[in-house]
Specification:
alpha+beta; five-stranded antiparallel β-sheet; 6 helices; about 30% helix; globular; RmlC_Cupin_sf; RmlC-like_jellyroll; Cupin domain-containing protein; Cupin_2
């Protein structure tokens, strides 16, 4: 499949926006998108249509979904505008904020004044990992990941990450990986939003 219209008709772009495509589909979409910039405009339109549908139908969604949908649209717009992709390092036990300094120094990687719940900016995307800067104002709701490891590096503020019965008290510089198949949620414990490098790595 090399044709943009044929790809649109498959419904894969809707799944891509929702984060439900596999690695092979992602590679296909990115290959066609490299030759057809219109694809990213279609991705943006789908994202906005899904958001409008949710608002019009009064759907109460997971507060994580919309910030990451908007971050995905923003990332697509940046790539379409010619931003040179830079692959962020994989988070690990010895990772430090300085490993991400080139991203943290960017003037567009800032927290808005009036965000609610969660705000995210994607740093890089590969089939292996998606990396973002995320600000959490009070909490991030319960989630379970079956196909990806979620990793945190705390930059500012403090939080408690609850993994089922265990509670991890995190401060700037701390790293934590969420195990697969484990229910978890985040509670901010500082007066300021908790700013983290968040990475989801394919299992």
């Amino acid at each position: 499949m090399e044709d943009l219209q044929e790809l649109i008709e498959t419904g894969l772009l809707e799944l891509y926006v929702l984060g439900d495509t596999n690695e092979q589909d992602n590679l296909l979409i990115e290959k066609i998108g490299a030759a057809n910039p219109q694809l990213w405009a279609e991705v943006d339109a789908i994202g906005l249509a899904l958001e409008k549908y949710a608002l019009d139908n009064g759907i109460v969604s997971n507060p994580i979904i919309l910030p990451f949908l908007m971050a995905t649209i923003d990332f697509s717009d940046r790539m379409q505008a010619g931003e040179t992709p830079v692959i962020a390092p994989i988070l690990h036990e010895g990772a430090v904020a300085a490993d991400y300094q080139q991203f943290l120094e960017r003037k567009d990687m800032i927290m808005p004044d009036n965000f609610k719940d969660v705000f995210a900016r994607i740093l890089s995307y590969t089939p292996e990992a998606i990396t973002a800067i995320v600000w959490i104002s009070q909490m991030a709701p319960q989630e379970v990941h079956d196909h990806e490891y979620e990793r945190f590096l705390i930059l500012e503020g403090t939080c408690d990450i609850h993994i089922e019965e265990d509670i991890f008290h995190l401060v700037p510089g701390d790293y934590l990986q969420i195990p697969l198949h484990k229910s978890h949620h985040v509670m901010v414990t500082s007066k300021i939003p908790c700013k983290v490098i968040l990475q989801r790595v394919a299992a």
